[in-house]
Amino acid sequence: MTSKPFGAAIFGCDGVRLSKEERAFFADANPFGFILFDRNLESADQIRALTSDLRAAVGWTAPIFIDQEGGRVQRLRAPLVTDWLPPLDHVTLLGPNAEAGMRLRYRIIAHELMALGIDANCAPMLDVARPETHPFLRNRCYGSNLDQVVKIGRAVVQGHEQGGVFPVIKHIPGHGLAQMDSHLDLPRIDVPTGTLDQIDFAAFRPFADVAMGMTAHLVYSAFGETGPATTSPTMIQRIRHDLGFTGLLMTDDIGMQALSGTVPERGAASIAAGCDVILHCNGDLAERIALMDRVGTMPDASQSRAEAALARRTQPQDVDIAALKAKLAELEQGRCA
């Protein structure tokens, strides 16, 4: 682990290899981690070289994140890795075997990520689906029943951890009621506090012990809020105290249009609200520099949470991936419980 304080950001990078300018910036900024997107993914050897270079730039084994839920939100595709059904479709296919099957699915995903030098995945998604849930989100969910979402979410966490990959629970404190895509608009949730406490927030309480989580860019009007949870001290305190989440709390992508102001202003507001680290997925190097100038290094409490999260890094258990895939196929066909 680095002896320098962590920069309060997780950064993307421009392409399939680092420029000299990016290397210098990352060395100076020492971000908590990095995140990869389609623009960074060309071949297995190239991805392994890029992940190695990112860590070399900061001089320590920084976590490298990706969105590999399966379905529409799957950055890596065949033939590099397995192509997957959307999560909700897979849960439906698995039926009574959904919990065991989804544990296997994400254990296989973790194996494929680790083989490329990627050790953190932005999953599980613990948002409880509703009939009105925006189509961008709905089939990424695990179900519309709270108990099912919790059971499958726990299985997904276990699959990641068994494979040595950090899971990131999202979108705290619950995105399932959103009827807008927060990449483009700011969704407003107008249901009573009882509904949120008993369903949406309740889905996250059993995961208070997970190392990392991601906020939701949503307005929860029941609490008198007019801005998104990510930049709301009231909602971040609710995540910490009512939901009991003690892990490292990152924002959803700070570039999403649910947020207002410049990217540096959004980042500063999120840190002031109580988020630990800013997730900056897109944008050029100049924007990254401007963001880093505003958010700087993590405050002491965030640094402690970051160190605690990294201390939970696990080594993958030896496993026969072919056997796991065969077992998953049997579960899909309903041949075993």
Describe the structure.
- With 337 residues, this protein is α/β, with parallel strands linked by helices.
- It has 12 helices and 12 strands.
- The chain has helices spanning 20-29, 44-58, 87-94, 98-114, 135-138, 146-162, 193-200, 233-241, 263-273, 285-295, 300-310, 321-332, and strands at residues 7-11, 31-35, 64-66, 68-70, 73-74, 120-121, 166-172, 188-189, 212-215, 219-220, 248-250, 278-280.
- β4 (68-70) and β5 (73-74) form a beta hairpin.
- α3 crosses α4, α4 (98-114) runs parallel beside α6 (146-162) and α4 runs antiparallel to α12 (321-332).
- The N and C termini lie far apart (42 Å).
- The relative contact order is 0.14.
- The model has no long low-confidence stretch (mean pLDDT 95).
Furnish the topology, listing elements before pairings.
Elements: E1 7-11, H1 20-29, E2 31-35, H2 44-58, E3 64-66, E4 68-70, E5 73-74, H3 87-94, H4 98-114, E6 120-121, H5 135-138, H6 146-162, E7 166-172, E8 188-189, H7 193-200, E9 212-215, E10 219-220, H8 233-241, E11 248-250, H9 263-273, E12 278-280, H10 285-295, H11 300-310, H12 321-332
Parallel strand pairs: 1-2, 1-12, 2-3, 3-6, 6-7, 7-9, 8-10, 9-11
Antiparallel strand pairs: 4-5
